[in-house]
Each structure stands twice: as C-alpha cells, then as structure tokens.
Amino acid sequence: MYWIAFISFILMNYKVASKISNKNLEEILIIGFTIYTSSIILTGYGLSALDLWNSRILWAIVPFFITSLTYYFFQRPVFAFEMEHISAFKVIGSAIQTTHQTYLKLTGIERFIFACLFWSFLLVCALQITIVFNSPPNEWDSMTGHLNRIIYFLQRGSMSHFIGTNWNIDTYPRSFCSLQVYPFLMSGYNEYLFKLPNVGSYWILSFGIYGILKNLGVKFKTRLFLSILFLFLPNVLMQSITTETDIVLAAYLCSIVYYLVAYRKQEKTIYLYLAGLTFGLALSHKITFVFSFIPLFILYSYCFLPAIKKKAVFVIKHLIIAHILGLVLYVAATGYIANFIHYGHPIGPPTATQHQSVERAGSLGNLFVQGSRNVVRYGFDLLNLDGLRNIMVVEKVNHAMKAPFRAIDQGLHLGLEKVTEFTIIPFTFDKRFEFYNGSPIYGSIFIFIILPSLLMFIRRPNWMQGLFLMAFAVHFATLAFTAAYDPWKGRYMISSAIYLFPLLSYLSSSIFERKQQWLTNMIFGLVVVIISLSAIFTLGLNIRALPFNAYGKKSILELDRVAALTINRPDITPAYQNFEKLVPKNAIVALGTINDDFEYPLWGAKFGRKLIPLNPFEQGIQAIPTKADYLFFSKGVFQPKLGDIRLGTDTTLVKGVLVRGEDYYLRKLH
C-alpha cells in the first residue's frame, strides 16, 4: 500500500505540473520537482510539530493534500490567464519527434559524438542504478550526522531541538531530513532509498540545464550536448550515488535559474512565484546557498529589469510576496531560528562557525591574503584529470602536468602548500587518492571544454554570457573567501557549474553549427571519448562503492552491511562487526562516543535498537540511564574496567585512514 501511495504521489505532482505549465517536457519535470519537494518538506514540518514525524500512515496521506493546495494556489486569477492546456502525451511525443528528426540530419562526426555520449550514458546509468539499489550509504557525514539524526528523529517522533554527539545532528537545517525519510518510510525502512533525492536531483540538473539554454536561445544540438555533458561532471556523478546534500542544493539552484530565464523570455507571473518559492527551498536546505546570493542578484537584475521598466509596481510587489512566502513556508522552521535561540548564531555554536566559516581567518587583511590563496588553490584543484585519475597511469600524467606550477609556487614563495592557517586540510598539488576519488570536481571537462570556451569568450565577448561568467566568478570567489580551504569542497562547485555552462555554448555551438576541418572534428571526437571514459571510471573505480573488484579490494556488492557502512574507516570495521554480533537487534544502547564516531551502523540492519548519546556535543558526559542494556564506548570517553569487551579496532592500520578510529569497548549493563 505504501509503495502505491509513494508512486501515486510522484505521478500526482507531475500531473499538477503539467496542468500549471505544460509547454514543454523539461518544464513539467522542473515544476514537478519543485512541488514534490515543497509538499514533502511542509509535511515534515507539520508532522514534527505534532510529534508524529514517525507516522508512516500520515506520511502516506498528508503530502497529497499539500500538493492539492499548491494546485489551487496556482489556479488564482493572477496565474489563470497564463495557463496553456496541452496534453502531456503530446508534449512527450513532440520531444521524441524533435530528437528523432534532429538525429536524421546529423553529420558523421555528430553521430559519432552523440552515439559515444549515449552509450556511455547507458553504462553510467547501469553502474549508478546497481550501486544505488544494492549498497547502503556510507558517507562520513551521513554516518556521524545526516542519516544518523534521521533515525534519532524517528525514535523521538519529532525534529525538535536535540543535541547529539555530532554537532550536525542539531544545527544542520532540517528540510532535507523530510526528503530523505519519505521514501525511506514508504519503502519499509529500506536505507538504499535515502539516496533517492540525489538520483532525482541528478536528472533535474540535466533537464534544468537544457531548459536554461533553450530560453537563452541556444540551438537544439548544442543544448542537448551540454545537458548530457553536465551529467558527466565527476562531482555530479559522485554525488548522484550518495546521500550528500550538495547535488540537491544544485537542483534547487538550477530550477531557480530556469524560472528566471523563462520569466525574462515570457514574463509569466507563475515563474516569478516559482522562483521565490524555490529560493526558500534552497535556503532551507543548506546555509551554503548564501554563496549564490550575489550571483543570483546579477541574474535577477538581468531577468527582471525589462519587465520592471514596463510594470514596476506589479513585478516588485509579486517578487517580494513570492520570496516572503518561500522564506516563511520553508526557512522559518528549518532550524536557523532555533540555532540562534540556543547558540546565538543561525549556523550553530562557535566551535562550528570558527571551524568552517570566515571567522577562522581573523582580521579583514588576513582574510584578503588567505582568501586570495584559496582562489588559486581551488583553481589548481580544477586543473586536474579527475575521474581518469582513478587509473594510476593517468595520475602520473596529472603529477607531471603540475610540476611547473609547483616550481612557481616554491620559487615565488606563494605559500599555497606551506601556509596552512586558513585551511582545514592543507593544500597539495597532488591531492591524496581519498580526496580526488571521493570528491572530484570537473576533470577533463574543465581542461578540454571549459578552458577553450573561456578563451573564445575573451576573443569574442557576449554580454549575456558575460553575466553568467561573472556569476560563476563571484560564486567561486565566495567559496574561497568565506571558509578555510578544504579538498572536499569540490562538491560545492556543482552549483558553480550551473552559472558556467551557458558559456560553454561558445565551443560546442562552433562544432555543431559551423563547418569545421576534419582535424578539428577528430580532436573534438577524441575529447568526447576522454570525457566519456572519465564518467565511466568515476563510478566504476569509485573506491567507496566499487561495483566490481578493483585496487585489490572487494566490490561493495560482496561486502556485508557493516563493512560497507564503514568502508571509509577500515580500521574500525572489525569493532563494528563484533558489536553487531554481540548486541541483540532490539537492545537499548548507551553511547560513549565522540564527534567523529560512526553512530549510524549501531542502529542495526532493521533499525530496531534504541541509542542514547551520553556525550552530547559540548554538554559533557551524562549519567548512564538505568534502562540501557549495553554501553558502547571509546576509550577516550570512558575508561574500560574488568569485564568490558574490547571490540577490536585495528589501531595499527594507517593506509587509507583519514582519521584514526577510537579503541571501542562494549559493557553489558544488566
């Protein structure tokens, strides 16, 4: 029954989207995504307020009512005259027909390029589906914070203020919890479905890029090529199979940009409201959305000024109303206000803000110096063959490519590698394998597509594409100046790419719309092959989720659940496996753990255990409750005593270990 409700709800959202605006397929999908996320997030807020966040039956019913209210809202007279009534089947049929007709007119090299992309994409999708639906999530933040707190919230029936061992459990915005828990509950606690929002966002990004380029006047072959190319970005591919949050934020941002350019082209009020509501969704999702405030202001000015000149009062009034609605509906309850009440800061306690924000830099002068260094550091992070680097031969080529830059850094004393005061993990030209494998950026697409497009723009500038380039530059600089350098932050550049991709029509349109020499066509065909291989290797040789045996390691499909969950921390795997063997599935377990400890695996495969944190963030050690059956603890929190069982952390393991595991013990309390 719950599966039926889940599928029916998805179909309902796209039915409503087709009623609201069914001009084209990509718009139906983007609006459907906005309505779906909106309804689920509002359902989560409402059920949490009633302490019913863990009610499967209410999760199966309430979202339908909220989507219905959304539909009635968009039936108001201000939108009604803009509606176009076209059959959804006709829209889909038209898209298929257009694609088929274009294919028949392709030249030989164009057929090769699209065939290479198509077959590579099928292989990538096969790898993606295999990994998503056959392996549990295992990202570090998910094991300590994001997914772990969802189970705590289910245990409590509410997302209200709760201080767990990791500061993310209480301080991270709560809207995404609802998007993850909804398919999890509807599937009967299938943890693989935690990844579903990421998979959906992966597709929305492609259709969003296609729609943005279409509204900017880019021709069909070019926008089709670039919308597929976006799916081949290594950081986009990597996040599509995880439960990390940045790809979902990027999908929100892509939707906003689509609504903006659609409004500029058509001046329909509905796009203005959809942009305002999605702005609220994005801000409710993650505080790093503020990186896009200035870039979006640039695009808002570009898209709304023509209409403001004609009907200023109308546009400004509805623009303000739309964004206030988004802030009130989605942002108010997400946690920023609660953080301010409890910690005096919307992000969280000083420990968190000083570690990851601009405050770490100290004075304004030092921020300018260190932020400038970070701009250069992240620039060199882009200049890598990520994806292909999973092959050691390519990594040697990548190392050689960096030799001149390393010499310049040392010769001019730039301090890119030596100065570490505004870094979380020090910068190196040769990032260690775990970083570029776990958080790649643009890879060969940057070197072979983005850089040539930038050079072409410099030779032949276009003011509209220049605005998008400016938005990218500001977003990139904001990342560098507002937080300490971290090699994992490549994932934030998924959002940066949305601003950058309109610029890539320079190179791709010259290939598809102008006659080129055979040598140029051959080179571009080779580039497409390299990019396709990079996409395949990004997933096929991803050490966190190997679909087959590689690097002397087993496929994640062959590992037991605990080994798969702790794959990033192989030194603690034996301890967690022993815990799983010794502790009953429905036991109450008190936890004497620290901020970096993985707590999610301790719930058990069926999530039947109850966990009670005894070392809540910055609260000090709490008393062991009498109702607890077991105490799971690290030696750094509680001292072992006679009768405690040492679970077996491998304290000698160094290779592939980013943070050393604690020495874990188990104590039976009754």
TrEMBL record:
- A Pfam cross-reference name: PMT_2
State where the protein is found.
Answer: Cell membrane
InterPro entries documented for this protein: LipidA_mod_glycosyltrf_83, RgtA/B/C-like
Name the membrane topology term: Multi-pass membrane protein
What keywords were assigned to this record?
Cell membrane, Glycosyltransferase, Membrane, Transferase, Transmembrane, Transmembrane helix
User: Among its keywords, does the record have tRNA-binding?
Assistant: no
Q: Which domain of life is it from?
A: Bacteria
Instruction: Say if the entry is tagged with keyword Transport.
Output: no
What residue stretches are annotated with the Glycosyltransferase RgtA/B/C/D-like domain?
Answer: 199-325
The residue ranges crossing the membrane are 28-50, 56-74, 112-133, 192-212, 224-241, 247-263, 270-300, 320-341, 441-458, 464-485, 492-512, 518-543
From the Swiss-Prot or TrEMBL record, give the protein name.
Glycosyltransferase RgtA/B/C/D-like domain-containing protein
- Organism in which the protein naturally occurs: Aquirufa beregesia
| Lineage, broadest ranks | Bacteria, Pseudomonadati, Bacteroidota, Cytophagia, Cytophagales
